[in-house]
Design goal:
Length: 399
């Protein structure tokens, strides 16, 4: 039987979507998890194709999430989300639903930059105060423990803020589908991805750049704004090509497809992926960025790198939140990115998940610079210039 290379997958229980992003209305179809690289050319409609794909799905790929309503089956991993209060939504609160042409409120780059800087400065200031008071710096091990804890605390607090914003503003594509939850079969897996990120990034940062002889007062304030801005752009270059190759190269797609099982992600699924992708997301791409900036002569000391990490993790979590607000990835160079029309907003990566499969678009996660240069930008649906209400300003609470 002749084959077609067109991919068919299901973005929700009611819509089949092909690789071009075109939607096909179907009846209630379970989301298949094993998706075929080739679909036979037949005269069958979407319902018959869905039944065929559903029969072949892998149970490990299920995105079904029902565990929050039955605590009797919970393990320590389930309680982790509950105790820390990091659920993306609250079951006892409503989420507003908006039509695509409802105006999108605006959150300024001043608000997001302020949030990141304040939360990055708190542990830095505590460290500075300790050195000033005692006259000695902390050891590398103490630095790892302290900054790893601060990394986790800031991320948890951001998750709380994003949940509050979601209940206030709603989510992109909310009129079609609610946000995916943490899958029943992946509760422990998602937990490990979150812990790994907030542990290993501070670990290799301390190992490569922390020097006991250099206290917080040694930070190069003059270079810091440029380092923060360039860090996001250079990181995005490496991420863009690593990410795009995993989509375009058949032998690499198997390492990335798990991450694309979610079509409407939430922040907890930021690093929901197989081990190979997790390694590059957590360490590989940040390390390539660090060495690139060192190579061109930037100081990139420990304290500067800490600030850069905080900018990146804020963007990673917010970019997977789907919160219906027009806001830019925070950066000291946002003004330049906006001038060039290559700034990234929350909807950009949301569209990458919603419509992307092996053939995709919007590969960047900090900017649209490389997508624009290499022709892979997808036009926005709700965050279009004429649909953003810049007079409806959203405040990003610090606490």
């Amino acid at each position: 039987m002749p084959k077609a290379s067109t991919l068919i997958f299901w973005a929700s229980d009611h819509d089949a979507v092909d690789a071009t992003g075109a939607e096909h209305k179907t009846e209630a179809i379970p989301r298949p998890a094993l998706l075929l690289d080739e679909v036979p050319l037949t005269n069958r409609g979407p319902q018959q194709q869905a039944n065929m794909a559903t029969a072949m799905r892998n149970p490990k790929d299920s995105m079904k999430s029902t565990w929050r309503t039955d605590k009797s089956q919970w393990t320590v991993f389930h309680w982790f989300y509950e105790v820390l209060g990091v659920h993306p939504t609250s079951l006892d609160q409503d989420v507003p639903v908006h039509a695509k042409d409802d105006k999108v409120p605006f959150l300024s780059e001043w608000q997001t930059n302020r949030w990141v800087l304040v939360h990055a400065l708190i542990p830095f200031a505590i460290h500075w105060a300790y050195v000033t008071y005692t006259g000695r710096n902390i050891t590398p091990m103490a630095a790892f423990i302290f900054y790893s804890a601060a990394f986790k605390a800031n991320a948890i607090h951001e998750l709380h803020i994003l949940r509050r914003l979601g209940h206030k503003l709603g989510f992109f594509d909310g009129d079609k589908h609610e946000r995916d939850g943490v899958p029943d079969v992946s509760v422990a897996k998602v937990f490990r991805s979150l812990i790994s990120t907030s542990t290993f990034r501070p670990m290799f940062t301390v190992f490569l750049s922390y020097r006991t002889a250099l206290p917080p007062s040694s930070i190069n304030w003059l270079w810091l704004p440029l380092e923060i801005g360039l860090y996001g752009i250079v990181l995005d270059f490496w991420f863009y090509w690593y990410h795009r190759l995993m989509h375009d190269v058949g032998s690499l797609w198997k390492y990335h497809r798990t991450h694309h099982l979610t079509k409407h992600p939430n922040p907890l699924l930021t690093l929901f992926a197989d081990s190979e992708q997790e390694f590059f997301d957590i360490a590989g791409i940040p390390l390539m960025t660090y060495f690139s900036l060192k190579l061109i002569g930037l100081p990139m000391g420990f304290y500067e790198w800490w600030f850069c990490h905080q900018y990146v993790v804020f963007s990673e979590l917010a970019g997977h939140s789907g919160v219906r607000v027009h806001t830019f990835t925070p950066s000291t160079l946002t003004w330049l990115l906006r001038l060039l029309n290559v700034e990234l907003v929350i909807e950009d990566h949301d569209l990458h998940h919603r419509y992307g499969w092996k053939s995709s678009h919007n590969y960047g996660k900090q900017t649209r610079l490389w997508d624009r240069i290499f022709g892979t930008v997808r036009e926005r649906v709700e965050s279009t210039p004429e649909n953003v209400d810049y007079n409806n300003k959203v405040t990003l609470p610090l606490w």
